[in-house]
Amino acid sequence: MKYRLFICTFLIIVCSQTIYANNYKERRDIINNILSDDSSRSNNKTIPSRKTLKKNTTNKNTNIIQTTTGADQVLLKTGINFYHNGMYNAALEKMKELKKKHSKSPFIDNANTWIGKILIKQYKYKDAITILSKIKPNSGAYPEALYTIALANEYQRNIINSISQYKQVSSQFPQHELADNALLKSGKLLLQINKGAQALEAAITIIKRYRDRENIDDAYFLLANIFEHDQHLKDLETARKVYKAFIKKAADGSSYFSRSPLLRRVKFNLKKLERTYFRFE
């Protein structure tokens, strides 16, 4: 009996190590491709940029807009403008007016999504989650509602729920304009709770699939931070290489890197890293 138990334990350990080795090699190959800039020549299919998605969404929504009276759409747009100008109470009133006067409007779920966002700005996180949870999975507004629920949970420090919901957005709706945001958010939170391997997967996925979106610089920064700080994946030489790759892309005129607000931090982190660990080279 003990012999069988020993054999089973041994096999489990061997299989686990084999899987880990294969995953490690796969990740290392991907990172080497990223650092050698081969990712731009890979066969990985990238997701369209946010600008392209918005254009396609506008075309799809034309029929919906034509079926409305126009008054509900005006209320929605006015409320959104109030929101972007920091007039949250006024924005909330417009969304409530839309729901009251146009109960059959196709924009009801959109209004609820914006109400959720407004409530978050007013620090009413539980109320935001309640209103957003009314939006059903078959609604076009559902991905954004789910993302906003994750945001509310993040602000409440319900980190596990927040990560789960961000992952749900990115996995179920990879074409959505918030998919890369959700991956980035989950990656940062995973690094905070010492889940570096999962954070690494999020960063790599953004670089492979969403390199035409503005979060690409954040993904490189996250990648470097993982190798600089994670207790299991710490690899200062790789972190250094990623920081250098970021700076090179900025110097080469890559727009998301040359105009990145992270560029100064990247240069500072690289200088600090080299001064601390590589000064005798």
Fill in the keyword field for this structure.
single chain, 281 residues, mainly alpha, 0% strand
Structural description of this entry:
This protein starts with a helix and ends with a helix. The model is unreliable at 8-22, 38-42 and 58-68 (pLDDT under 50). It is built from 15 helices and no strands. The longest helix is centred in the first third of the chain and has 34 residues, at 2-35. It has 281 residues and is mainly alpha-helical.
In a few lines, what is going on in this structure?
The protein has helices at 2-35, 50-60, 62-66, 71-84, 88-101, 108-121, 125-132, 142-155, 159-172, 179-192, 196-209, 216-229, 236-251, 255-258, 263-277.
Topology record:
Elements: H1 2-35, H2 50-60, H3 62-66, H4 71-84, H5 88-101, H6 108-121, H7 125-132, H8 142-155, H9 159-172, H10 179-192, H11 196-209, H12 216-229, H13 236-251, H14 255-258, H15 263-277
Helix pairs in contact: 4-5, 4-6, 5-6, 6-7, 6-8, 7-8, 8-9, 9-10, 10-11, 10-12, 11-12, 12-13, 13-15
Provide mean pLDDT, rounded.
Answer: 85
Beta-strand content estimate: under 5%
How many helices in DSSP terms?
A: 15
Strand count, sense and barrel status of the largest sheet are: none
How many β-strand stretches? 0
Q: What is the helix/strand order?
A: HHHHHHHHHHHHHHH
Return the structural class. Answer: mainly alpha
Helical amount? over 70%
End-to-end Cα distance, whole Å, is 56 Å
Radius of gyration in whole Å, from Cα? 23 Å
3D shape? elongated
